[in-house]
Amino acid sequence: MLRFLLNRIAVLLPTFIGVTIISFLFIRLLPGDPIELLAGERGVTPERHAQLMHMMGFDKPIWQQYLTFVGDVLQGDLGQSIVTKRPVFDEFFTLFPATLELSICAIIFAIAIGLPAGIIAAVRRGSVFDHTVMATALTGYSMPIFWWGLLLIIVFSGTLGWTPVSGRISFMFFFDQVTGFMLIDSLLSGQKGAFASAVEHLILPTIVLGTIPLAVIARQTRSAMLEVLGEDYVRTARAKGLPPSRVIGLHALRNAMIPVITTIGLQVGVLLAGAILTETIFSWPGVGKWMIDSVSRRDYPAVQGGLLLIASLVMLVNLTVDILYGLINPRIRHRR
Amino acid sequence: MPALLDIRNLSVTFETAQGPFRAVDQVDFSVDTGERLAIVGESGSGKSVAMLAVMGLLPKTATVTADVMAFNGHDLRQLDARSRRKIIGRDMSMIFQEPIASLNPCFTVGFQIGEALKTHLGLDRAARRKRSIELLEAVGIPEPAQRLSAFPHQLSGGMSQRVMIAMAISCQPKLLIADEPTTALDVTIQAQILELLINLQKDTGMALVLITHDMGVVAETAERVVVQYAGQQVERQSIRGLFEAPHHPYTAALLAALPERAGRGRLPQIPGVVPGLGDQPDGCLFNPRCGYADDRCRRVVPPRTGPELGEALCHYPINGEEAA
Ligand SMILES: Nc1ncnc2c1ncn2[C@@H]1O[C@H](COP(=O)(O)OP(=O)(O)OP(=O)(O)O)[C@@H](O)[C@H]1O
Ligand code: SF4
Ligand SMILES: [Mg+2]
C-alpha cells in the first residue's frame, strides 16, 4: 500500500511541473498587460508603463521570470495580487470555502441522484425508467452551463420568484466568517432565517454545477452495473439465497463502484471548471469568479498562483481517489 | 417415498432477438436422497440451463414450463421469490464451472462463506467463524483460519472451487448441483475435486447432480446418467448399463471418444456441433451428425423407447434387436 502510494506521488511530479509551466504561460499569452488594464481609460505614458513593468519584474526575459516564479513557489510564496496587493495565497483561501461549499453541494447532488438512477436503470434495463434516465443524462451532459443557468434563473427566480438570483445569502444577514461555509456559519450565527436563506441561495447554483457530473455519474453507474450484473459472482450471490437488496446493493454495487469512483474523481476537475462559469452567472464570491476577474485584469500573479493552487487541489483529489480505489479493490491493494 | 427432486417435462425457452429458442426441451429428472446423478452432453446441450431453471436463477428472458417441479415437498413452480430464497443456498445449492469468476473479488473468503450462514442459519459472528473454519477444513484447505481473510485473487482455481464447495455445503444441503466443477481446472486438480465431492456426498448423505461433458468423469462418479443433446434427454441409464450397452448413437459416440476406449492414436471426435438457435434440423435433432441417420430420421421426430433401451430418443436404438 505504501509502495502504491509512493508510486502515485512519483507520477504526479512531472504533472506538477507541467502545471507550473502552463499556469505561468497561459496568462502571458493573452494580449494586454496588467499596467494597461490598471490604468484603464486614462491611459499611461510609455515611460511610466516601462517603469512600472520594470518595478514588477515583467521586463525580464520570460525564462527568468519563470524561474523566479518556480523558486518562489518552492518557498511557498505565490506572490501578491497586482490589484489588491494582498498575497495570492490568502486571497485564494479566503474565497475558496465558497467554491468548496458549492462544489461539495453539487457533487453530493450529483451522486445522490446519479448513483441510484444509474443503478435502477441498469437493474430495469430497457424499461421506461431506463430510457428516461439515459435520455435525460444525455441532455444534461450536452447542456451548455451558461444557458442552463440563465434558463433556471429566468424560470425559478424570475417567473416563479422562488429562489434568489445571486450571492450566497440575503443582505439582511450579517455575521462573521467562522468556517467560510455559509451553511455552517449561518447556523452558528443563531440568526433566525439565516440558514434558510443560505440554502435558498445554494439551490440553483448547485443544480447548475451538478448537472454534468450527475449525467456522467448516472451513465457510468448504469454501464458499470450492467457489466457487473452479468458476472458469475452475482449469480453465486443469488444462488446463496441472498435477497436482491444484498445481491445488487452489496455484491454488484461494490464491484461497480470501482470505475464509478474513478469517474467521480475525474469530475472534480470538471466541477472546478464548471464553478468558474457557475460562479460568474450567480455572482458567487468564490475562486472561480475571482479567477475570471483576475484574468480580465491581467493580474499575472493572481492567475498563475490561482491556477497552480486549483491544479494542485485537483491532483490531491485524484490521489485521494486512487487511494480509495485501492481500498475498495483488493486486487490493487495487494499488488506488489 | 417421493423423490427429493422430481422434475417432469421441463422446458426452457429464451426470448432472443432472432425469436424464441428452446434451450431445454421436455426433460425429466428425479433424484433421490443420497443419490448421484450425472448429466452429460456437449457444450450447448442445455445442461446448465436446466439446472439454473431448477434453482430459479435464469434471466427474465427465459420462460420455464414443467408438469412437475418438486423439491423436498415444495412445488418450485408455485414458490414466490422470497420462499425460493429460503431454499436455495440452504437445502439446494449449486457450484459453477468457473470457480475464480464465481467468487466476488471484493470480499474475503470468510465473508462470502459467512453470508450463507448468517442468512439461512442466523449464526452470530463467532459461530460463523467457527463453522467457516470447519467447512474450509472439510474441503481440504490448509491453514483454514488464515484463509478466512484471503481475497479470491489470492487463491488458485482449485482453491477457489474448494471455497465454492465449502460455501455450497455450509447449510448442509439435501442436494448439491455441481455444474462442470472441474472443467476449468488442471487435470491433476480435477481428480482431487471430484474425489472431494464424492467423499462429501458419501459423508453427508446429500444428493449430488453432477453436470459434465466428460464421460470419464461420469464413470467414476455417478450411479445414474442422463445424456443430453440439444436440450433433449436422448438416453437415461444406470452407469453400468450405459457403459456396457449404450443405446443412443450419441451416447455411443461419446463413449467411443473416451481415451481408454479409443486406444492409442487420435480420439475420434464427433464431427459437427450441437445445433443452436435457428439451425435445428427437422426430425431427430442428432441426424446431421449421426452415422445411422436415414430419411425417416430427417423427417420424423423419434419416439422415446422403453427402459430396456435406455429410454433412448431414437428410431434405431443400438442393440434394439437383441433387446426386443
Ligand atoms: N440467457 C440466454 N439467452 C439465450 N440463450 C441462452 C441463454 N443461456 C443459454 N442459452 C443457450 O442455451 C443453450 C444451452 O446452454 P447451456 O449453458 O445450458 O449449455 P451447457 O450444456 O451447459 O453447455 P456448456 O458445457 O458449455 O456449459 C445454448 O445454445 C445457449 O446458447
Ligand atoms: S433417430 Fe436416427 S438420426 Fe437420430 S439418433 Fe437415432 S438413428 Fe441417429
Ligand atoms: Mg454449462
Automatic annotation (TrEMBL), chain A:
<keyword id="KW-0472">Membrane</keyword>
<feature type="transmembrane region" description="Helical">
    <location>
        <begin position="6"/>
        <end position="27"/>
    </location>
</feature>
<feature type="transmembrane region" description="Helical">
    <location>
        <begin position="102"/>
        <end position="123"/>
    </location>
</feature>
<comment type="similarity">
    <text>Belongs to the binding-protein-dependent transport system permease family.</text>
</comment>
<dbReference type="InterPro" id="IPR035906">
    <property type="entry name" value="MetI-like_sf"/>
</dbReference>
<feature type="transmembrane region" description="Helical">
    <location>
        <begin position="256"/>
        <end position="282"/>
    </location>
</feature>
<feature type="transmembrane region" description="Helical">
    <location>
        <begin position="143"/>
        <end position="162"/>
    </location>
</feature>
<dbReference type="InterPro" id="IPR000515">
    <property type="entry name" value="MetI-like"/>
</dbReference>
<feature type="domain" description="ABC transmembrane type-1">
    <location>
        <begin position="96"/>
        <end position="325"/>
    </location>
</feature>
<dbReference type="InterPro" id="IPR045621">
    <property type="entry name" value="BPD_transp_1_N"/>
</dbReference>
<keyword id="KW-1133">Transmembrane helix</keyword>
<dbReference type="GO" id="GO:0071916">
    <property type="term" value="F:dipeptide transmembrane transporter activity"/>
</dbReference>
<protein>
    <submittedName>
        <fullName>Peptide ABC transporter permease</fullName>
    </submittedName>
</protein>
<keyword id="KW-0813">Transport</keyword>
<dbReference type="GO" id="GO:0005886">
    <property type="term" value="C:plasma membrane"/>
</dbReference>
<dbReference type="Pfam" id="PF19300">
    <property type="entry name" value="BPD_transp_1_N"/>
</dbReference>
<keyword id="KW-0812">Transmembrane</keyword>
<dbReference type="Pfam" id="PF00528">
    <property type="entry name" value="BPD_transp_1"/>
</dbReference>
<feature type="transmembrane region" description="Helical">
    <location>
        <begin position="302"/>
        <end position="328"/>
    </location>
</feature>
<keyword id="KW-1003">Cell membrane</keyword>
<feature type="transmembrane region" description="Helical">
    <location>
        <begin position="194"/>
        <end position="217"/>
    </location>
</feature>
From TrEMBL, chain B:
<dbReference type="GO" id="GO:0005886">
    <property type="term" value="C:plasma membrane"/>
</dbReference>
<dbReference type="InterPro" id="IPR003593">
    <property type="entry name" value="AAA+_ATPase"/>
</dbReference>
<keyword id="KW-0547">Nucleotide-binding</keyword>
<dbReference type="Pfam" id="PF08352">
    <property type="entry name" value="oligo_HPY"/>
</dbReference>
<comment type="similarity">
    <text>Belongs to the ABC transporter superfamily.</text>
</comment>
<keyword id="KW-0472">Membrane</keyword>
<dbReference type="Pfam" id="PF00005">
    <property type="entry name" value="ABC_tran"/>
</dbReference>
<dbReference type="InterPro" id="IPR013563">
    <property type="entry name" value="Oligopep_ABC_C"/>
</dbReference>
<keyword id="KW-0067">ATP-binding</keyword>
<dbReference type="GO" id="GO:0005524">
    <property type="term" value="F:ATP binding"/>
</dbReference>
<dbReference type="InterPro" id="IPR050388">
    <property type="entry name" value="ABC_Ni/Peptide_Import"/>
</dbReference>
<dbReference type="InterPro" id="IPR017871">
    <property type="entry name" value="ABC_transporter-like_CS"/>
</dbReference>
<keyword id="KW-1003">Cell membrane</keyword>
<dbReference type="GO" id="GO:0055085">
    <property type="term" value="P:transmembrane transport"/>
</dbReference>
<dbReference type="GO" id="GO:0016887">
    <property type="term" value="F:ATP hydrolysis activity"/>
</dbReference>
<feature type="domain" description="ABC transporter">
    <location>
        <begin position="7"/>
        <end position="255"/>
    </location>
</feature>
<dbReference type="InterPro" id="IPR027417">
    <property type="entry name" value="P-loop_NTPase"/>
</dbReference>
<dbReference type="GO" id="GO:0015833">
    <property type="term" value="P:peptide transport"/>
</dbReference>
<keyword id="KW-0813">Transport</keyword>
<protein>
    <submittedName>
        <fullName>Dipeptide ABC transporter ATP-binding protein DppD</fullName>
    </submittedName>
</protein>
<dbReference type="InterPro" id="IPR003439">
    <property type="entry name" value="ABC_transporter-like_ATP-bd"/>
</dbReference>
